[in-house]
């Protein structure tokens, strides 16, 4: 484009966020991936806003949370496999609660407390023993 050329942006250009403004989360073992512009997720009242539980609830991905996302249990225990640098630091309440969780790893977090703080790619795994597909009011079988 020369200095005299003018490029007009269409409403579609303005509505499409740049790749660097996107959040991409993959939930293992199902391999479900969701993508959305950073800061655009509607808060549904489960866990902290922009937490992995909030993402899962917004996209109908099952992540058990017996306490409703209030950091009062460990049923939303996840392992952050990729993108941990873009996730909030664990606070004392979460760390105290995690002491009661099974199979703690260095990348263990509670899905209701681990908040995505910046755009990027994230991969989280729901531990096998923590997957409860048969629960009242929830889907009975995973797709993968």
TrEMBL record:
Pfam families this protein is in? Answer: Fer2 (PF00111)
Q: Does the keyword Metal-binding apply?
A: yes
| Highest taxon in the source lineage | Bacteria
What keywords appear on the UniProt entry?
A: 2Fe-2S, Iron, Iron-sulfur, Metal-binding
One of its GO biological process terms is: P450-containing electron transport chain
Determine if Iron is one of this entry's keywords.
Answer: yes
Which cofactors, by name?
[2Fe-2S] cluster
Q: Name one GO molecular function term.
A: electron transfer activity
Domain 2Fe-2S ferredoxin-type: start-end pairs: 23-130
Cross-referenced InterPro entries: 2Fe-2S_ferredoxin-like_sf, 2Fe-2S_ferredoxin-type, Adrenodoxin-like, Adrenodoxin_Fe-S_BS, Beta-grasp_dom_sf
Record's family? Belongs to the adrenodoxin/putidaredoxin family.
Q: What is this protein's record name? A: 2Fe-2S ferredoxin
Organism from which the protein derives = Granulicella aggregans
């Amino acid at each position: 484009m020369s200095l005299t050329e003018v490029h007009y942006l269409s409403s579609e250009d303005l509505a499409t966020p740049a790749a660097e403004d996107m959040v991409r989360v993959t939930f293992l073992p199902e391999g479900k991936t969701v993508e959305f512009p950073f800061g655009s997720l509607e808060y549904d009242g489960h866990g902290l806003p922009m937490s992995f539980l909030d993402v899962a609830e917004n996209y109908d991905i099952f992540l058990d949370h017996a306490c409703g996302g209030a950091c009062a249990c460990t049923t939303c225990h996840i392992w952050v496999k990729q993108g941990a640098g873009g996730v909030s630091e664990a606070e004392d309440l979460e760390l105290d609660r995690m002491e009661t969780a099974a199979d703690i790893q260095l990348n263990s977090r509670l899905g209701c407390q681990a908040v995505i703080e910046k755009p990027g790619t994230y991969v989280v795994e729901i531990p096998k023993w923590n997957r409860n597909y048969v629960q009242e009011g929830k889907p009975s079988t995973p797709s993968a």
